[in-house]
Fold:
Amino acid sequence: MLTDRFGVGWMISVNDDAQAVAHKPDESRELVLQRVIDVPREKLYRAWTEPELMKQWFAPKPWTTPRVESDLRPGGSSLIVMRGPDGQEFPNPGVYLDVVKNERIVFTDAYVSAWEPAAKPFMTGTITFEDLGGGKTRYTARVTHWSAADREAHEKMGFHEGWGKCTDQLEALAATL
Structure:
């Protein structure tokens, strides 16, 4: 996937005449959180990729993240378990689709491990860390859903508030690294 200067991802395919054709993602299925964070992208990437660090910020407080397993490579599995204040746990299995150190992490819940399909795929997440110089990073979390209805459901669950709180927690932790 290519990303333009606005952080919009473009998929490139080749048609029968061997000409490149760009496909803009369907914004009716996307939710996006973007911030300029006063932390170098290497520290943000580290907080996204080291399980012990992820446990400290990944769920919006008072929720916790008691378990993180990560095989950080394209095709590698992940398992992130979030625990609500009532003690109920919510496992989130997935697979990494693309990993570029300090630049991008792409993951999906379409697969639960290796290439075993999920019963109900919901989303693909693309996290980008754009170096702005001076220790600042443009952090973008772009979530593409399988349908507009899934996007709407995620938004009603509190995407902007929840992912916003998590980003605050991520920033605070990364600043200490």
